[in-house]
Amino acid sequence: MELTGLKIFKYLPAARKAENSNCKKCGFPTCMAYALKLAKGETEAEKCPFFPEELKNLVEQSNKIAQKTIEIKELKIGGENVLFRHEKTFLNPTALCVLVNCEDKDFDKKLKQIFDFEINILNKSKRIDLIVLKNSTAEKVKKLQEQFTKNQIITFEEFKKLPIKIIEDKNFTQTAQELKLTREKAVKEKAEEYSNPVCVYFPAVLQQNFNELSAKASFYICKYANMLLFEDLNESFMASLMLLRENIFTDPRKPLKVEPKIYEFNGGDENALIFLTTNFALTFFAVANELEKLPRPSYLIVTPADGMSVLTAWSAEKFTAQMVVKTLKNYDLASKVKTRKIIIPGLLAHMKKELQTEINNSGLDFEIVIGTIDACEIAEFVKKF
Question: What integer is the mean pLDDT of 51-75?
Answer without folding.
Answer: 86
